[in-house]
Each structure stands twice: as C-alpha cells, then as structure tokens.
Inverse folding.
C-alpha cells in the first residue's frame, strides 16, 4: 500500500485528488493539510511514502515543504503539483529534493501511475515541464561547478548518471548497459553519495548542468 500525504490549500482540489488517488486499491491518502506549515508534523505522525504538495499556498509554500520534508531522516518522496507549466518555484523545488513535478491537469490515470512510479523510487516530470527545463539548462547551465561534482564518478557511474538525465528508468538503464536492476540501484546510490544529490532528479539536473545530456 502506497501511503500519501496530500497538501493543498483548496478543499475541492484536495477532495478531487484524493478521490482519484484512492480509486486505486494500492493507494491510501493517510492525511491531508491545507497549508505546508502542518507538513512536518503529519510526516512524523503518519510516515507516508510520498508527499504530494501544491506549490503556491498562503503561509508555507511547496518549496519550503520540499526543503523541510527532504531534510527529515528516511524522508518520503516529494511530488509538487502546479497549475502552471513553469513558475518561479520549479527549479528550486527540484534542487531542494522534489522527486516529481506534475501539472494539475494531469489525467487521472496518469496521476495514479505517477504516484506508483515515484513510490518505486523513480522520478516523474510532466512532459511540458521536462521540455521547459531542458531549454533552461541549455541556456543557463554552469558546466564547470557541475562537472567538478561529477568528477569522482567512475566511467560506469557516469554512464548511469547520463542515462538517468535522459529520463531512463532503472529497468531501461539495466537493459541498455547490460546490468541487473539491482546493480543499477547500487550505482545510483554511489552516484548520489559522491555528488551529494538527494535523489535521481537532482542527479539529472546536475548532469544537464554539466552539459553531458
């Protein structure tokens, strides 16, 4: 059972999202909040696998929720929902540890699938956001510091990191490099430790910043 904490300041939006998520028998919304100020207390109380949070909220926004939650020991994954293709919070939310970024007009079935994808340890971004992010990286990347952080990686770890940045799942990386999925997970863990990345999304950002994907 995938346990989710849902945070959004609009009651109707929360109700709709909860109904969509719990239409899947493998998902349980264990708690809801109308603002990010309750996030830490609810995470500690309910130990969700995933926090699904709005970006713009009146007191504590999704960016701060991401920072607070990902700093917790054994932190749950954080997925940010937004009404906009891209806003001022997107890059910073991802850099602070968000594992996914989705639009609120994501079709119900795709939203449910995205929760399972993130719950399994993968990253998930809406396609339009991915395109905008790649454009941003192409015009605003700072390759030297990013490349320095990637320097400690072995050639195989670098291959895995580039594949992650290209959007490949662990299974796809395993097939492409002739490895087992377990070995890919070991490589990914070492990559995150060496680069001080919180999750695979931050690894992807780092690789794009370095101009390697």
């Amino acid at each position: 059972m995938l346990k989710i904490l849902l945070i959004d300041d609009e009651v109707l939006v929360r109700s709709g999202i909860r109904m969509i998520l719990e239409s899947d028998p493998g998902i349980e919304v264990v708690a809801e909040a109308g603002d990010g100020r309750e996030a830490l207390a609810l995470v500690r109380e309910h130990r969700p696998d995933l926090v699904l949070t709005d970006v713009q909220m009146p007191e504590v926004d999704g960016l701060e929720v991401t920072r607070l939650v990902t700093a917790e020991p054994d932190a749950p994954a954080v997925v940010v929902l937004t009404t906009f293709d891209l806003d001022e919070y997107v890059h910073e939310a991802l850099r602070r540890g968000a594992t996914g970024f989705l639009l609120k007009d994501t079709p119900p079935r795709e939203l449910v699938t995205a929760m399972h994808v993130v719950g399994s340890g993968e990253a998930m971004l809406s396609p339009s956001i991915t395109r905008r992010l790649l454009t941003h990286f192409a015009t605003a990347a700072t390759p030297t510091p990013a490349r320095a952080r990637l320097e400690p990686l072995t050639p195989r770890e670098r291959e895995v990191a580039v594949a992650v940045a290209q959007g490949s799942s662990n299974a796809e990386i395993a097939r492409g490099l002739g490895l087992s999925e377990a070995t890919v997970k070991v490589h990914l863990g070492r990559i995150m430790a060496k680069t001080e990345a919180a999750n695979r999304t931050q690894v992807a950002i780092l690789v794009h910043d370095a101009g390697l994907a």
About this structure: The two ends are 35 Å apart (CA to CA).
